[in-house]
Each structure stands twice: as C-alpha cells, then as structure tokens.
From TrEMBL:
Protein name: Cytochrome P450
PROSITE patterns: CYTOCHROME_P450 (PS00086)
Cited Gene3D superfamilies: Cytochrome P450
GO molecular function per UniProt: heme binding; iron ion binding; monooxygenase activity; oxidoreductase activity, acting on paired donors, with incorporation or reduction of molecular oxygen
UniProt xrefs under SUPFAM superfamilies: Cytochrome P450
Species per Swiss-Prot/TrEMBL record: Dichomitus squalens
Predominant localisation class: membrane
InterPro entries (alphabetical): Cyt_P450, Cyt_P450_CS, Cyt_P450_E_grp-I, Cyt_P450_sf, Cytochrome_P450_fung
Length: 287
C-alpha cells in the first residue's frame, strides 16, 4: 500500500494523510520560523523558542538542534492546549454559576494585590482562596475523566478482578474526584475544601496529584498547566466580573453546566456576561 498511488480506488486516505502531515509540519514550522525572523531583525519578545535559539546561536556545538527546539515548542502548546482550554472554559462557567466564590476571591485579591496592578506568581502564597478555586475547578469539572490508558506490566489483582499482564488499565479519575468518602458533598462546588482547617476550610486532600494522572503517564505539563490556570484565574478575578445574562423580561438566565462528547470534558457552548469590574480594571485588562 505504501508504494501504490493515492488515485487508485480505495486509497484516497493517502491523500488525506499527506495533507494532515503538511498541517502538522505547518503547526510547528510557521510559528518557529516567525520567531527566527523576529530574532534576525532583533525584534523578538522573550519566549521559549527565542531563549533556546539565542543559546543555540551562542553555542554552535550545542546538543540541542533547531529541529528539537521547534518540535519541543510545538508539543508544549499542542499537547496541553485542549485540556487548558477545557479547564479555563470550565472555570468561567463555574464562576458564572457560583458568584459567591467569585466575590470572595475578588475580595482576597483586592486586599492582597490592590487595584493598581495584576496579580503575579509572587502573590500566589498570599492568595489561598484563589488557588482553592482553581483546584476545585479541576476537581469538580474533571477535564480528563479517565486520564490516559496504562498497561499492566505483570499479572495483578484488584479486589475480585484478575488483571493479566499486558492489560489496558484506565483510572476512573472522575470517580475518585467525586467519591464522598474522600470529598464531602462531592457534587457541590466548594473551594473551601482545599483550605486548611486553621484557615477556616475543610482541609480535604489535594486533588492535583490525582487529576493529572499517575506513574509514567502522568501529565508532563502538570505544573505548567496548574500555574497557567492559576494566572488566568487570578487576573480574571482582578479585572473582570463574570455573570449570567438576562432575558427580555429581566430575569437571570444561568448557563447550563453540560459537557460535550469526547475524552476531554469541555463544557458545551454557553452564554455569560463578562465586564470590567471598574474603569481602572478595564485598563489593567489591556496589560
């Protein structure tokens, strides 16, 4: 089949596969070449690719090739783009539905950060409730309900089930995140469950070691994903109000929390109202 032309009956898939290959190459090469061109004109902002290309240029015998830099950068934004979008969309949905949690997080940011700048990672330790909102989003709306498939390396047994070596094993991450023996009232959105008891919270187990998977197939970008979602959330809390829309009679119309099909749990399209909290925050939102 490899050497047969794509115009033969039944081999049209070869033409489609070739187009997919070109699309994949463009996905990696177009942004990479754009950074190279910007570097050549001394107009490149700081970025993962720019930093590695500068290092590569200053060290001609570097172990890392340009192709490795290009594809590693592509893996960063393709490998986690769908899950990050799903997590951020779920966060917006849940903040629209739970405005009491949103208000408490905004009050925390106003107290710690003020209203003349956006939060930074240096503020993270002083914004525990913001972090709790992010963790509760990851727990409540489990983005990857079954994680990635694993393979049993040897014969095993789980309760009354025999698991032969070579079997495909999936972890029910959604089930763990909604297990009432682990999390009280698991179908309620409660960020305070991730605050310590001394801070007035419930002191329940951290969800992060579970939602990103296990073992060799744990998400390699878990720290980047959690940090990115925290920064998105903190900046949105600082600058924006997320609220339901109103119908023609002036009644609030909350969005419906439903997931679309697929192995990644992303909310179905919904409508909400996102506005600057104030004139000052409107300026912050452009930074």
């Amino acid at each position: 089949v490899r050497y047969l032309p794509s115009w033969l009956p039944g081999l049209g898939f070869k033409k489609q596969a070739l187009q997919w290959r070109r699309d994949l190459d463009d996905l990696a090469s177009i942004p990479f070449n754009a950074v190279k061109a910007a570097l050549a004109s001394d107009d490149a902002p700081d970025s993962y690719v720019a930093a590695h290309l500068r290092s590569h240029t200053s060290k001609p015998n570097a172990d890392t090739s340009e192709e490795e830099i290009m594809w590693s950068a592509a893996s960063l934004y393709t490998g986690g783009s769908d899950t990050t979008i799903a997590g951020l969309t779920a966060f917006v949905l849940l903040m629209c539905l739970h405005r009491d949690a949103q208000k408490r997080a905004q009050e925390e940011i106003d107290k710690v950060v003020g209203n003349d700048r956006l939060p930074t990672f240096a503020d993270m330790a002083d914004l525990p409730y913001v972090g709790a909102c992010v963790k509760e989003t990851l727990r409540y709306w489990t983005v990857a309900p079954l994680g990635l498939p694993h393979r049993a390396m040897e014969d095993g047994r789980y309760h009354d089930y025999d698991i032969p070596a070579g079997s495909t094993v999936l972890a029910n991450i959604w089930g763990i995140m909604h297990d009432e023996t682990i999390y009280s009232d698991p179908f309620a959105f409660k960020p305070e469950r991730f605050l310590s008891k001394t801070a007035g919270g419930l002191g329940e187990p951290d969800c992060v070691p579970t939602v990103f998977g296990y073992g060799r197939r744990i998400c390699p970008g878990m720290h980047l994903a959690e940090s990115s979602l925290w920064m998105y959330a903190a900046c949105m809390f600082a600058a924006l109000d997320i609220a339901p829309v109103y119908d023609e009679s002036g009644r609030e119309v909350p969005p419906v929390a439903e997931a679309g099909p697929g192995i990644i749990s992303i909310p179905k399209p919904f409508v909400c109202d996102i506005t600057p909290r104030s004139a000052a925050s409107a300026v912050l939102g452009t930074q």
